[in-house]
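Work package 3, deliverable 3.1, input record:
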Amino acid sequence: MVKVNKILATLVAFSLVLSLSAGCGKAKSEVGKMPSDTLYVEKVENLPDDFIMGMDASSVISLENGGVKYYDFDGNEQDVFKTLAQSGINYIRVRVWNDPHDADGNGYGGGNCDIDTAVEIGKRATKYGLKLLVNFHYSDFWADPSKQMCPKAWKGMEIEEKTKACYEYTLECLTKLKKAGVDVGMVQVGNETNGAMAGEKIWMNIYYLMDAGSRATREVFPKALVAVHFTNPEKVTNIADYAKKLNYYNLDYDVFASSYYPYWHGTLENLSKVLTNVAETYGKKVMVAETSYAFTVVDSDHYGNTISGDASVTKNYPYTVQGQANCVRDVVDTIVNKTTNGIGVFYWEGTWISSGGSSYDENKALWEKYGSGWASSYAKEYDPNDAGKYFGGCAVDNQAFFDPTGHPIESLKVFGLMKDGNKVDLKADAVEDTNLIIDLNGEITLPTEVNAVMLDNSKSVIPVEWKNVDIDKMKSGGVAKYDIVGTAGGMDAHCYVSMVEFNFLKNYSFEDADEAPWKAKANKAMDELKVEDKATDSLTGTKHYHFWSGNPNTVDFDLWQEISDLPSGTYRFAISTMGGDCGTQNNYAYVKINGEIVAKSEAIFTSYNEWHDSIIDSFSYNAGDTLEVGIHVECAGEGNGAWGKIDDALLNSVSK
Ligand code: CA
């Protein structure tokens, strides 16, 4: 009997464990790594096994509802969460908006991410062994430094009531996730809350709301980490100040997270410095909650992207599949090896691709119906000034890890390959454009090598072959621009040639901070002789050379520039003047070769706003001779004294 009872007891315990693990959703983890023959991955040393390789995948459900399918690396349709896991992702992040719908139930877009959507995403993540970070915005739509709007249901509440609502809302949401068996590992109370949250702008009130979220989390998921999230790490003192405020109010949290978009948020060195400061001052864990980079500049959903071909962004990596992987690898390396208490990096929306329509109108219909664009027109009632005006598609489809048809791109494998590294033969990954400015009468010589970025992000020069170059045509074509296409490292290379009327003078319009290479010498005691910053008195720009002298016959000076390295040829010199009260004048532009004046042209000052050009049409110059071009000014003066302005000196070649 005893024996039997014991067996029964063991069986009961066994089945309890089984059902418990099923309840917690602890499925067999699919997290692994995919081999690659083409992706170069520099090993991240000291990478802990439990380091968070996170992916925000908040838009997946809305895309799938609109017909988007995802595939594995072999081209078979496969659950995107499984593909993420197989590639080394071990954590999914999902944003949660309180009520992203209008009164008629139409979604605001951006994935229409309410808690029910989060549950759906969480269940699928859990199925493949991925933990979930629940990212509460505590708003009905996007919360970031530019807006932290109060949820509709909390409008008009005093802070005490709002705090209670925040606690109850968080509790209810997390309970839904728990009941669904979702493996919640972290809860984020607020999104990019740089000094505001849920309509509150006083830190004490922000604290009350964050504390409500934290308390609810501790209650429902006692083992989960509580995270706070800020952005703009490039503003070093701001980040330190947020951490100080939270410490002052003694907020119960575990992880201090920051966004890090490399094209906006400063250097990696700075990122590690600001996070390490928080980690070491307050004993917190730190992480990157959002980062991303483009693998192409091509848009795929007919809605403009954050990074496009002409974006003026800091570009430390080329916009290639390899560049995207290198960028992610370096962010991870920074958090692992250069940051104290760094626990992870989440990539933002690596699954947000085109809704799949073949035109703007087709996609717009999908964005409106399924919420798969960043905002639908229905967001107007809640956010009239931003979403209400600029609603549309996805601005980061070129920063995803899936192509427009839902197939994973090679860079996704970086997450799994960082641990051991993946060495492949180095070759050029991107070729830099060459820009040449050539004088109309100068020699046209195209470079034989171009700058390249290699797979490991190192720089190198590689040979280039230009195609269809017609030098004679360019020589006779006058002022024009040419895009010469060539091949380098198997890729297209471009040499943009601008044939210009080149000005061989430097600081020709006196705009440079440094006056050089202009020189001036007063031959008499003058009152004023200097570069002046006054746009209304300048021919172009805001600066010019200015003179004034109160006493008669005291204006007498030379202003000149010496030029070296000028090719032999025929040249023209011109300079502009404007002024008044000059009386009798003896002014001239001049050209001096080997110390002798070889050409002169009269210059005059007449009245305010009357600019005159003094031009020396043509003079010959032989390389190696010393050359000086300038203006001599000598005025008797009248009235309050001679005054004048000199601007825009030009030294151009003249065709023979
Ligand atoms: Ca787009």
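The CA atoms of residues 560 and 630 lie 4 Å apart.
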